[in-house]
Amino acid sequence: MGHFQPCKGRNSESPREHGGRKRLRIAIDGPAGAGKSTVARKVADILGYTYLDTGAMYRALAVLALDRNISFDDPEALGELASSVRLDACEDNGVFRVWLDGEEFTHLIRTPEADRAVKLISMAQPVRRVLVEIQRELAGRGGVVMEGRDITSVVIPDAEVKVFLTADETERARRRWADLRNKGIDMPFDEVLAELRARDAKDLEREWGKLVKVDGAVLIDSTRLTVDEVSRIIIGLCEAKQGCSTG
Ligand code: DC
Q1: Mean pLDDT of all residues in 118-132
Q2: Which of 23, 37, 57, 227 could staple 143 via S-S, CB 3.0–4.6 A?
């Protein structure tokens, strides 16, 4: 059984009601590079909600599977791995940190190698089953901004605020390329674009938890919007549900 141990009890201190206001669940899905993490983190910060990066959970497991030489063709073995490790995660000074069995994976999960591995592990249904269960439990507490690919469709389809965040393919690849450069990884733009396309294809085609825009999700195209503009739109959606107070 996988476990999520919130850092410093942050998630466990997030009651369903706060100051007489219901603490909502904000679910954000979208393709790689659409700006989900940046925007979700910002919205969570403004609202005092917990930010949950579900991609980081898949990424950490993918890196662990590589370390342990588990075949990506063996969904059952991958599921066994997911259910046997303890997963710790939390947001800390703008970084979403992840530990597996007490070992920190945060700095290993955003490499090109991790990109390739996560594509494969996210296709394994037994892995998805374990992570979806953990994510549902976390969302149940309310006061969360959760982002990924299947949050609006599978994890919390009844979330009060549902968003499908996207952007042009070239712009998404440019953002990813800039991110990698900032981390000292110099990859040709064409390679970054090809990798992004491959990931898009996997996200759209996988049998379980594929990326879809569900009815009721608000489509936001971030190609020409700043992080602040997108965040304001989402907070507006939240306020319209009379659940969010920024003051
Ligand atoms: O958001 P990201 O790029 O860090 O996600 C990494 C991978 O994990 C991505 O290729 C798709 C997968 N993923 C998923 O299948 N389901 C989620 N809820 C989140 C991520």
Answers
A1: 95
A2: 23
Neighbours of 1 (CB within 10 A): 10
Q: How many domains does the chain have?
A: 1
Is position 13 within any domain?
Answer: no
Comparing C-alpha atoms, which of 175, 139, 138 is closest to residue 30?
Answer: 175
As a whole number, the mean pLDDT across the chain is 90
Predicted local distance difference test score (pLDDT) of residue 6: 53
Query: Residues near 84 by Cβ (< 8 Å), separated by ≥ 6?
Result: 1, 2
What residues are paired with 104 via a beta bridge?
99
Q: How far is the CA of 149 from the centre of ligand 1 (A)?
A: 6
Specify the residue with its C-alpha closest to ligand 1, atom 15.
122
211 in a domain, yes or no?
Answer: yes
Measured in angstroms, how far is the CA atom of residue 129 from the centroid of ligand 1?
14
Quote the pLDDT of residue 13.
45
Index of the ligand 1 atom closest to the CA of residue 202: 10
Task: Note the pTM of the prediction, 2 decimals.
Answer: 0.91
With a 6 Å cutoff on the Cβ, whether 243 touches ligand 1 is no
Asked if residue 245 is part of any domain, the answer here is: no
CATH number where 157 lies: 3.40.50.300
Q: How confident is the model at residue 11 (pLDDT cuts 50, 70, 90)?
A: very low
Task: Write the residue with the smallest CA distance to atom 5 of ligand 1.
Answer: 55
15 inside domain: no
Q: Ligand 1 test: best mutation among 54, 108, 129, most atoms within 8 Å of CB?
A: 54
The string of pLDDT tens digits covering residues 162-220 is 999 999 999 999 999 998 899 898 999 999 999 999 989 988 988 889 999 999 999 99
Helix H or strand E segment including 190: helix 189-205
DSSP β-bridge partners for residue 100: 87, 103
